[in-house]
């Protein structure tokens, strides 16, 4: 952080996010911290999910584990998208094998009004962990992250994970005013969570709108986009005035890519369904893309994996900048050795290959 | 079935499937038979799912229930996509609230070789029910249906419903030869199941590839399309030589619509994520479309429902023919009165509205 050279020279990840071609294509993996690593499972033994996210020494160690193993080009803070909700005082926990579970679903105006704002002082462990990580990571940027208002709303209204977000979408259509109030509150929570990370040294952020893909674009634009835009507007700059690239991602969002860029993202994340050259046509010209190897490819024999990695790299040339990633999170069953090999493969690849 | 006038005059549904504009836009609902109707729940009380599909008197009654209630323009046979697997001798049952559950997942060459072909004589209750339905329905066509090979394979390989079809896709990539053998066997089962329905009088068929949306188009084309094409090739004509329109549908298949038409579908079903005018650009010119009201709209206040229905109807004008439907199955919580009102609204609508 004290270098005089532009960050672009040091970080292929930040270079690609700025729309400039770096010396090698940068790579990191969504969910690289946690889940599939044996050293993660060892350290998490007997520690609840949300508890593990609130103990700085665990956050630091788990965030660093994949960086050590894989030499990825970015670290991503170990946390959970419902952590800021819990920290704000919403009754939510993470049930192993299920996901976030609400003590009580949010359905009424009173339920919405009871959602408190997030006070940065409620998450002191986040800046503590971020500062230590930034100091340790050196030239490897730390990505901060948060869940987008729609995805947080889905968990709150459904009361847990859901296949079709039917309850959330029903509230959205039945009472647009209450919906706006709900998403305003969640946007404040998301924005504050990201601001805390950026203020402590995160050099990029990713906004996860995991469930936005259940929406038609017209509904996304009308009911979701303004709130995600508010979150992204809140975090474009570091305290020192450096640009903080904002990555925006959701699964199954092929129809929404243009809108997800237009709400103020610097980089659009793409799942595996849309080839990156096609995705490049769906966003504003000049928008860097992140993605998009199908995570189920990880279980294939290496020659198949290598061919798919190369296909993604070739298609990524159509984008203004390409950050290699999976098209969704690392599956719990992923073999770490395959991920390591992918990193090497991406780093060794050159556009002429 | 004994009319001398062309069926088009009598059936707005068959007219639209033939790419001709009928007097009113036809409408039916995926999953209209079953689930949300109180008269269905009453008749199913104490009867297992697969058992209910194999008792002709129940199949007839459940198939007719929504036709009576809604005056929809087509009936769809009450059955289940795993029924032909069970009838062929695969150990599968439907667990309430879960879905199809396999006694033992299919993973090895021996498992695949143990999948028997479907003998039409193993499902005598299907032609019995179809014949009685056709006699009762008169001018209202009966749609036959089957699950497509990929979706059947997903259930078999995963051992039940799955979020990402990871096991199925892994088998597909690890052992393409075994995968082809598996899908060949399933295509025979699907095709036979449809042929039995058509031979007994079904006047259209729908091939459900419920989970195909988890595939990138390249994978769909390489690993799935030839097998779905084989199924569709087997059922284009009735015994009397009349065209039997083949509808092809899957959820989240926005990227696949072109391919799903190209494998031999006469009508492409579209989920709610892709507006029909955009879908019309993704299929061959002249392809009629079916869809695509977001099922979660059903719970909204009527003015919202009506506006969304009209939006779908307007967008459907871009297609060579439009069969109004939901963009996925009727949710169990759907209010039958809302569906009835939608049918009236669609029937009353005229393109100039």
Overall spatial form of chain A: globular
Number of helices of chain A: 17
Cα gyration radius of chain A (Å): 19 Å
Low-confidence stretches of chain A: 1-8
Our estimate of the beta-strand percent of chain A is: 5-15%
- Quaternary state of this entry equals homodimer
User: What number is the mean pLDDT of chain A?
Assistant: 95
Strands of the largest sheet of chain A, in order across it? 1-4-5-6-7-8-9
* Fraction of helical residues of chain A: 40-55%
Structure description:
- The structure is a homodimer of 353-residue chains.
- Chain A is α/β, with parallel strands linked by helices.
- Chain A has a single domain, classed as TIM Barrel (Alpha-Beta Barrel).
- Helices cover 46% and strands 11% of the residues of chain A.
- Chain A is built from 17 helices and 9 strands.
- Chain A has helices spanning 7-10, 12-17, 38-44, 49-53, 56-70, 83-88, 109-113, 125-137, 149-158, 166-174, 176-199, 217-223, 225-233, 257-262, 276-282, 302-316, 336-348; strands at residues 75-76, 92-95, 99-102, 142-147, 204-208, 246-249, 267-269, 289-293, 322-326.
- In chain A, the strands form 2 sheets. In chain A, strands 1-4-5-6-7-8-9 form a 7-stranded parallel β-sheet. A two-stranded antiparallel sheet of chain A has the order 2-3.
- In chain A, helix 9 (149-158) packs across helix 10 (166-174).
- The longest helix of chain A has 24 residues, at 176-199.
- The radius of gyration of chain A is 19 Å and the shape is globular.
- In chain A, 56% of the residues are buried.
- The interface between A and B is medium-sized, with 32 and 32 residues.
């Amino acid at each position: 952080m004290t270098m005089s050279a532009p960050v672009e020279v040091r970080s292929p990840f930040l270079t690609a996010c700025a729309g400039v071609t770096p010396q090698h294509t940068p790579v990191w993996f969504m969910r690289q911290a946690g889940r599939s690593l044996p050293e993660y499972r060892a350290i998490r033994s007997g520690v609840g999910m949300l508890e593990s996210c609130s103990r700085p020494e665990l956050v630091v160690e788990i965030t660093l584990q994949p960086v050590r193993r894989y030499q990825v080009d970015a670290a991503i803070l170990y946390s959970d998208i419902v952590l800021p909700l819990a920290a704000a005082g919403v009754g939510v926990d993470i049930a192993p094998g299920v996901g976030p579970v609400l003590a009580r679903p949010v359905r009424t105006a009173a339920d919405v009004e009871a959602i408190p704002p997030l006070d940065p002082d409620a998450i002191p462990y986040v800046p503590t962990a971020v500062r230590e990580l930034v100091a340790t990571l050196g030239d490897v940027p730390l990505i901060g992250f948060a869940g987008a208002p729609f995805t947080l709303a889905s968990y709150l209204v459904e009361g847990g994970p859901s296949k079709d977000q039917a309850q959330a979408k029903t509230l959205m259509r039945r009472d647009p005013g209450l919906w706006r109030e709900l998403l305003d509150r969640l946007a404040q929570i998301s924005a504050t969570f990201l601001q805390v990370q950026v203020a402590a040294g995160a050099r990029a952020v990713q906004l996860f709108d995991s469930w936005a893909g259940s929406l038609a674009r017209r509904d996304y634009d009308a009911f979701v986009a303004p709130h995600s835009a508010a979150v992204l507007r809140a975090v474009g700059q570091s305290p020192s005035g450096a640009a903080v690239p904002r990555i925006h991602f959701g699964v199954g969002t092929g129809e929404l890519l243009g809108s997800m860029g237009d709400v103020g993202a610097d980089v659009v994340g793409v799942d595996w369904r849309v080839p990156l050259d096609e995705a490049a046509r769906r966003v504003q010209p000049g928008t860097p893309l992140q993605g998009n190897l199908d995570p189920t490819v990880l279980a294939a024999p290496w020659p198949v994996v290598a061919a798919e990695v190369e296909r993604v790299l070739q298609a990524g040339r159509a984008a203004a900048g390409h950050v290699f990633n999976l098209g969704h999170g690392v599956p719990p069953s992923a073999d770490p050795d395959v991920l390591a090999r992918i990193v090497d493969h991406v780093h060794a690849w050159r556009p002429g290959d």
